[in-house]
Amino acid sequence: MTVGRRWTWSFRARVFGAILALGALAAWGLMVGSPPRWPTDGGWALAGEMLRAALSPTLSPEAGFETAGRGEGSVLSEALGAAQRTVTFALAGCSLALLWGLPLGLMASEVFWRLLGRRPGTCRRCARWLSAALRSIHELLWAVVLLAALGLSNGTAVLAMAIPFAGIFAKVFSELLDESPQSATFALAGAGAGPLGQVCWGLLPAALPDLGAYAVYRLECALRSSAVLGFFGFPTLGYYVAVAFENLHYREMWTHLYVMFVMVAMLEVWSASLRRRWVG
Amino acid sequence: MKEDSRRSIDRLWRHRPRDTFSRVSLLLLMVATVFSWLAGDLQVGGLFETDRWSNVRRFAFEILPYPLQQHGMSGTVGQGDTGLLPRLRAWGVGQLGRALEATWITLLMSVVAMAAAGLWAMVGGLASSRRVASADPFGSSSPSVTTGASRKLWWIVRASARGAALGMRAVPEYVAAFFFVALIGPSAWAVVLALAMHNAGILSRLGAEAVDNLDPRRGEALRGLGADRLQIVWAQVVPEVSGRWLLYFFYRWETCVREATVLGMLGVASLGYWIQDARARQHLDEMVFLILCGGVLVLCGDGLSTWARRKLRDSVG
Amino acid sequence: MIAAEAGVGLGLRLRNVTFDYADGSRALDGVGLDLESGSVAALVGPSGAGKTTLLRVCAASWMPTSGSARWTEADGREHVWASGSPASKARALRSQIGFVFQNFRLVPQLRVIQNVLSGRLGSMSLFSTIRNLMMPSRELTVEAFELLERLELEEKLYQRTDRLSGGQQQRVAVARALFQRGRLLLADEPVASLDPARAEAVLHLMREEAADRGAAFLASLHDVELARRLFPRLIGVAGGRIAFDRPTSEVTSAELRALFRGDGVAESDGAEEAGLP
To answer: Are C144 and C116 in contact, with CB atoms under 8 Å apart?
Structure first.
């Protein structure tokens, strides 16, 4: 018994050591290519200006030739409109991802094939590979690809989020389903229930709290992604942040950022209380 | 008799336990989702216009490797001096060389950022733990033991550690990266700093939670033997919690690899930079190739992290 | 039922059944058992004797390693299951067999009514499988309510199952098996979590329900006194064999003591809990 204990600790110690050593090696490797730079005076000034602007966000557009046509107080209305679109895109993307992710997750799980009474063969492997392929490419990169293929349209943003999220849903859902308690499905099978009955009355009800909690958590992630997608020209909060940043309007930028923080924080509090209720 | 049952059933139905908060929340979510699809200006219809489909056809052609595109345009007749295959090979070698270098740098950035975040989080996590960073470490929480001053001091330590972690993880990586690029210019280190900062915040919080969720009795026992704060941390807390810390570490590393790929778009010579560059030059074949390289990197990271987590979980037993 | 009295061949017949776990340990060894329609019996024996395994084989959940089991319906139809019988074929058969599991196997997140209704999934169409989960029909609801009433559980109709006590959950499990209205009712320690008075009432109810439908009823019980008092026939199991199978009045106390001391039938390996799904 002591031997077992000693071994586990030393395995973890080795992992710790490996992480530190690899971190140091990687830092050295990075330094060869791009030596670390100390901030220049200009850098300090710019960063200082950015941080100072955080204390005085503005509701009215800052002076500049590109402000023509933007009225008093229009920053807030821009930000709120963008916030609304950010939420809209996130909801649409997340619901679309859920629609595809749940069946894909079922197909990628082991228990589903057991309930069908088949060996989890090629179908399961295909579902797993598909979900891996979908999620291996970041939503921003999907956005880049879809922009090139489809052009700028709000639907493109929704698709760019829905594709990798469907892959992530599929992976996580399949794991949650396989880990959920399955004793009830055996009882239902003993009562002569078919695969559909076992899935709907035994498997899904037992796993639903976990699935729901994860879906709500993913909605948080979708909101952040949706905001960031604005960097590519979609009319969400990120767009206004990027434009203000490029025009050096840091005070406007902070207004938008604050709206984003508040929105994300509100959703986080809400979703956390939901998740506490469901999975304790 | 039957009427009785019916009445009872109706009464029980009216008084059935209901989770009003969840129901209202779900209803709101559903209404909002339907509203998003119907009135959210998603321009979904626009995706199916005919000129979009010609655009898609053009895109499908342009993501083919360039020699193939030339080949397609000039018909089956070869260029005389070189055949299709050698040119394809030259294209592939050229692309692969650059992609490998960019992938390598992306990987390095994520490793450096996570190692730094992990180091920070070990200290920050312990400093924000209720159990470790208190005037009466691992104590039975009887307030009389300690003086007011030292209680206040440790409260400040804990609050500042928690506040720092909160601030670090509240700022999204992208915004942090903007800031660091402004500070030190577009360099890999700006991205590393941004990723390290964000992940240090997340790992600190998760690490502190893991420490506080440990069974307190073993720490108390050591304290009863006369061990001091650091001795208990070293002899009890770290051995017990390290497995969980590493699980969190690998779980975040998976995400970090993805983010490192994308953050290069801010002008750092990683995969993201070359993707952005190819996009600007309208060389879609290069762009898609690089994106696929990023996908392979992420998949490898996923696999490694899953493997490590499983191994750790088994070894924790 | 007339068919039951006509007797010969109707009901459950086990012939020379053995059952080995995947690790090779033998749980049942040459078991023969006749259970006519409408008859009632209790399985007694020390833990690890093979009672649960025997019940699982009777339920066609597990297929015998050798030997065969045969179920003859009143209309003369026959189901036979033996080594290698495909599990999928057994579905129609299983919908005829109600089973109360020792550890209940309810879905904790569902309401009590949903768990009770799930007993009848074997005879629901695809459409009603989905509809009855969302909104059970009025008739099914009343039926479930009246069944729960007899188990003194009607007030819990719409409660979430995991909010119930162990004893209440056990009665929900009994209700699910009774709701199935099978021709064979099997129960693995169906009253282990109940107080003595209630245990007796529940066993009485199960007997009545089985008798009403001419169904056979076989239950394993660790409480031998209870078995002696309520069951007309006792089947003693030890070491994977049938030690005795007689009317209760003919079973002597000495025989029972020997059964639990493990005389003669020595090896009981406790593989029951370790084994299959």
So the answer is: yes
Report residues of chain B scoring pLDDT below 50: 317
If one counts every other C-beta atom within 10 angstroms of the C-beta of residue C143, the result is 18
Closest residue of chain C to B17, computed from CA coordinates: C159
Asked if C121 lies within 8 A of A183 by C-beta distance, the reply is no
Question: How many angstroms separate the CA atoms of A50 and A254, rounded?
Answer: 9
C158 and B8: CB-CB below 8 Å? no
- Asked whether residue A41 is assigned to any structural domain, the reply reads no
Chain B 101-160, CB below 8 Å of chain A: which residues? 105, 107-109, 111-112, 114-116, 118-119
The strand pair at C233-238 and C26-35 is best described as unpaired
Tell me the two tokens of residue C7: 């007797």
Neighbours of chain A (3+ CB pairs under 8 A): B, C
The first and second tokens of residue B244, run together, are 């969980």
- In C151-252, which ranges are continuous DSSP H helix? 166-179, 196-212, 224-230
Nearest C-alpha neighbor of A142 from the set B261, B169, B301 = B261
Residues of C in contact with A181 (CB under 8 A): 108
The partner residues of B56 in beta bridges, in order of sequence, read none
In a domain, A222, yes or no: yes
Nearest to A95 among B33, B46, B258 (CB): B33
Cα–Cα distance measured from residue B128 to residue B207, given in angstroms and rounded to the nearest whole number = 9
> Is A13 or A98 the better-scoring residue by pLDDT?
A98
* pLDDT surpasses 90 at A34: no
For chain A, give the number of residues. 280
Q: In whole angstroms, what is the distance from residue A14 CA to residue A37 CA?
A: 32
- Flag whether A247 is in a domain: yes
Write out the two tokens for A40. Answer: 């220049």
Which domain CATH number covers A167? 1.10.3720.10
The confidence score (pLDDT) of residue B317 equals: 40
Tell me whether residues C94 and A191 touch, CB distance under 8 A: yes
Is A221 contained in some domain?
Answer: yes
Contact, A234 vs A88, CB < 8 A?
A: no
Question: Which of C105, C110, C176 to probe by mutation at the A interface, max A CB count within 10 Å?
Answer: C105
CA A280 to mean position of chain CA atoms: 22
Mutate to test the interface with B, among A96, A137, A240, A268 (most CBs of B within 10 A): A137
Q: Does C133 sit within 8 Å of A206, measured CB to CB?
A: no
Residue B202 CB-half CA count within 13 A = 19
Q: Which of residues 195-254 of B touch C (CB under 8 A)?
A: none
What the block records as the tokens of A59 is: 């509701």
Domain B93-314 has CATH 3.40.50.2000: no
Provide the residue range defining the domain that includes A222: 77-279
Strands C184-188, C26-35: pairing is unpaired
Is the predicted pLDDT of residue A211 greater than 70, yes or no?
Answer: yes
Query: Looking at the 3D structure of chain A, how many domains does it have?
Result: 1
**What is the Cα–Cα distance from A223 to B29, expressed in whole angstroms?**
13
What's the pLDDT at B81? 54
Q: What is the pTM of this model?
A: 0.85
**pLDDT (tens digit per residue) in A41-98:** 888 888 888 888 888 888 877 766 555 566 666 888 889 999 999 999 999 999 999 9
Q: Cα(B194)–Cα(B197) distance, rounded to whole angstroms? A: 5
* pLDDT range class, residue A280, cuts 50, 70, 90: low
Q: What percent of chain C has pLDDT over 70?
A: 90
| Tokens linked to C9 | 């061949």
